[in-house]
Amino acid sequence: MNAYDQxxxxxxxxxxSINVLEAAMPTVLDANQxxxxxxxxxxxxxxxxxFQAGMTHSVINAKWAHFETVFWGFDPKKLVLIDDAxxxxxxxxxxxxxxWGKLQTIPVNALEMNDLTAEGxxxxxxxxxxxxxxxxxxxxxxxxxxxxGGQSTPYFLxxxxxxxxxxxxxxxxxxxxLQVIDSKPTSKADILTVSDFFNELKADSGRPLxxxxxxxxxxxx
Length: 221
Prior knowledge:
Radius of gyration: 19 Å
Helix content: 55-70%
Distance between the termini: 18 Å
CATH class of the largest domain: Mainly Alpha
Largest sheet: none
Order of helices and strands: HHHHHHHHHHHHHHH
Low-confidence stretches: none
Number of strands: 0
CATH superfamily of the largest domain: Hypothetical protein, domain 2
Shape: elongated
């Protein structure tokens, strides 16, 4: 039994039903679906992920409709017009999470979204057409957008439907048990080793990286 089959069988035993298992798999969009989404959609999801980091997700999600209203649907072309007076008003709005450092990322990242458009590509096209190793896309996004380092980028990509694995604690523990790595992957070399392993499982199974990542987390004994 190869590594993928071992992971799949362990996850199936844990959930007890193939239907339950398949229902637990993340949604993965195709290239056309990713391209169809607006820059505002991606900026909203990115900003939500930034606020979720280190905070209770349910609290952020409950407030997000108000964020959408206050920040004009996260339209990047509008958000670059934000001035100091606007931000001062925002900091008094109890319907928002008044975290100055995170709020500041919204106009900054809106500007970066607009820069992509000026380069002749939407954010959806940027991620849909990415044909290199997925961890290199993580790196590109973390370099271009504020507060998107660490695991924020893969979590964000998972949110919007781009196929990627996510190095959750459970996934890392499974990788350790499989002896793919011998410590938490932090270096570029370790990340590449992990990525190569995921790509091997993808080739063996025909499953997207997102599904393999979820199966790995579910398979942890």
